[in-house]
Amino acid sequence: MVLDSTRVINGTYGYVYHDGTWLTNIKSAEANVEITKEEIKRAGTRWTAHKVTGLSGTGTISGYKVTSEFVERIGKIADDSQGTFITELILKLEDPESYGAYRVRLKGVTFDKIPLMHFEVGAIVEEELPFNFTGYELLDKITAE
């Protein structure tokens, strides 16, 4: 069967939601789960096998600087009387020509840095927020009709 190019998903229709609100300033998002493995040496073969021993979720959202909301939320960790900002994000792809929407809920999201200030004269200000997460759930899946 030949690939129907109209069904290829266009990233223009990607969305990030936080607390049910679409973060309209986000222009790219990525989330991955790294599978940690240990090597297992076995008698009678030169082949090394692998045993899965853990999972680690990482990601990044990047976009235009519009407010200081995330600086404030992530930055509460700098106050010794406050705890870590832990949240959830929902990432969504929904190209109207695709076979449907794809949504992933990221659980236990914690950010890796507090983006206090970054700018360049004559340029639009953007910020990058790398994060870790401790679980995910596929909310909507895409399957060919």
Structure commentary:
InterPro entries: DUF2001, XkdM-like_sf. Pfam families: DUF2001 (PF09393). With 145 residues, the chain is mainly beta. It has a single domain (9-140), classed as Roll (Pnp Oxidase, Chain A), CATH 2.30.110. Helix content is 5%, strand content 49%. It is built from 1 helix and 8 strands, in the order ββββαββββ. The chain is globular. The two termini are 13 Å apart. The model has no long low-confidence stretch (mean pLDDT 92).
H and E string: EEEEHEEEE
Percent helix among the residues? Answer: under 10%
CATH architecture: Roll
Average pLDDT reading: 92
Shape: globular
Q: How many individual helices?
A: 1
Structural class: mainly beta
Task: Give a nutshell description of this structure.
It comes from Paenibacillus rhizosphaerae. This protein is mainly β. The protein is built from one helix and eight strands; from the N terminus they run ββββαββββ.
Summary tags:
single chain, 145 residues, mainly beta, Pnp Oxidase, Chain A, 1 helix, DUF2001, Phage portal protein, XkdM-like_sf
